[in-house]
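User: These chains co-purify. Model them together.
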Amino acid sequence: MKWPSGRVVEWSSGRKAALPLAVLACFAVLFAVRTASASLCVWRAPDEDIASIYDATSYKTVFEDIGDELRARIEERLGYELDADETQFKFFPVFNGEEQVGTVMTHAGKGQFGVIEVVVAVIDTGTGAIVKAVRIQRDREKAKGAIRSKEFLGQFKGMTSADGFEIGADLNTAEDGAERSSQAIANAVLKLLIVYDEFHASGE
Amino acid sequence: MSRALVLVLTVAGWANAGTKVDLNGGIYPGFRIDRDGSSFTLMGAEAEITARVSSKTRDIVTAAFQLWAQPDMNDWSMGYHFGLAYAVVPLGLRLPQIKVGQAVIPFGLLADYDTHIQIVQTPFAKTLSQRIDLGAGLQGSIAQTAYALWVSNGTGPYRLDNDRNKVVTLRIAPKFLLGDAEMTWGVSGLAGTLPYWQLDSMMMAMDGPHFYRMKYRAALDNTTDWGPVTIRLEGVAGKDSALAGPMVYGYYGEVRWAVTDWLEPMVKYDCYHVADQGSHRSLAAGFTFTPLHQTTVNLQAFFQQDWMKTMMMNERLWNVATQVTVRF
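Assistant: Joint model of the two components:
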């Protein structure tokens, strides 16, 4: 192709090679390495979250796939099925020097008006995970200020997967009328605690 | 060496290194009606591959690239939506990340808003005439303020530079909670040689640029999540060719309202104006339908009206489009 304003060198003879290229590369990925379909909740502000939760110097990213057996155990403890796209969970071990001081997990819960992205920071006591802090990184709920308040999110500190997570019975709602949003966050925290415990109990 | 061989060797290299690779993707079939007829469409079908190399205590580098099947658009406009291929090197907590490769130019709403899976588009094609570009830069955040610096060719993905000029883009975007509204305000500046069309010839932009011009742009953008209502605003102003050249400006407004977790009506309006040439305006209204308990499938539909008023034309166009988005 000629460009009147100057020289342009294209790297390939054309993008018609894109389809076979895509197929070839996808097959290469699928058969050469361990792959997974990642669930869609990213960790948006790791620096800021870590600085406010841990005394830490670094973190790393670990994505773990869920096998059928592990999935069944998690679903049994939850009392409901995992979402169809939850084929993988994300763990972010946090370190101070060489020492691991905690783990952060993220989850896209389903709120009243769309996805609530929940960040759960835990410490491991050796017998399971304990919540150190919970953050909301994105949501579209009406009670946005209330569900992000220290009063509401602070309730989760110190909780384990053995605790009750029912809004109204075990935990206070963020504000009147926000029960569904509050329960979605509580469910996300409980799910991540169970997932953490089951992954670590299974040695994965 | 062909790109296919490079990719296969790259993937094989990752496998040998034991690097974890994640595969995501999507397919976006649709249907479109306008004054000239109607057609089923395929906006795209893509795979997004992410590979990460980590040490015992930290991520060392993350590489991501986008592979796509031939959509129903020609080479040039495809570069607006496909061609991501970059590596990100984190320097440490509270330090910037280095980004190199083909990435989205961090200007205005483009920095945070993934337009390529949306049925309505921000006016970047008019204001910048580029979205994905080859370059290098820094990105990060200080407290609640995100920043990005990007230096790139200006010629789009998979094209070497056609001059010595580089496009320099800087964006700073603080985010804060105001009552029940989470607001992000972005301030962006851009200078460099980019594809250029006269307003009269913008209808032919899909065939590729015939000219490149120096462009200076400044933008103020805002994204507000106010409960279930999301508002996106962008104002762009600048000059073409030289700072003494004619003034250009554009603006964009979009409102989405999540009535429930499965239905989201939306409306958008944008305008792009070039002094001495005229203006393009566009108004669209539509909705997004998300099936219950799904986050990976949705249906988008809209009606759009366009007004093009220049010295050579005074046209009013319309189209109706639907698109199914399946992400995996």
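Residues 37-201 of chain A form one domain.
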